[in-house]
Design goal:
elongated, about 15% helix, about 230 residues, Lipoxygenase-1, alpha+beta
Amino acid sequence: MNTESSDKFKSTLAFTDLLFNVLIGFAFLFIIAFILINPVEDTKKIDSKAEFMVIMQWDDESVYDIDLWMQDPLKNVAGFPNKEAGWLHLDRDDLGQANDIVTMFDGQTKIMKQNREIMTVRGIVAGEYIVNAHFYSAKASPYKVTPMDVHITVLKINPYKEVHTGLVTLTGPGDEETIVRFKVNKDGDVVSKNKLQKRLAGMHLDETNLHHTTHYEETHGLNYQQDTQKEK
């Protein structure tokens, strides 16, 4: 019997299959280990950068300057002249269409029609918080000033909960309304709400001599005044 000739026809296919399966097994174990080391993040969890968020919105087409004001239990008051007070923080002072205009590199202007201000409460102090909306400037004279509806939403962030949603109508420059007053306990839970009126913006503007106006000037084709008394 010629053993040398029979060895030529022996196959290594079984060994190749075994080696391939071992490699697949190692690759699978590596993937499992990687997943365990880097677990998938819970997309439903909100990063806690604020305890409460207050969102105020009005007509996106309006040139009116409406301001959001807030007072915390320690009597800190935040608004456009004082955007940070204690744990209160005004993210943006919206001037109506005045600061919605962006000039591009080619010199063309674009308008982002969105009138919204956001106030955040970045820590918990037990007691009462007061949320006000104030009609600062119409920027529309000699046009007739018309009442403006203002929407306010108060949210608790973690855990997420809607504390209050409401609408008030401001009749003209100088008009101010308390949207809601809410009390929280030491754990940040809202325990009561009311709408007892209190002036925040009016008192502050009187003290600092920053007063509303209805005058105007031509700016970007829109008739309104860039109020020189209100430093923004």
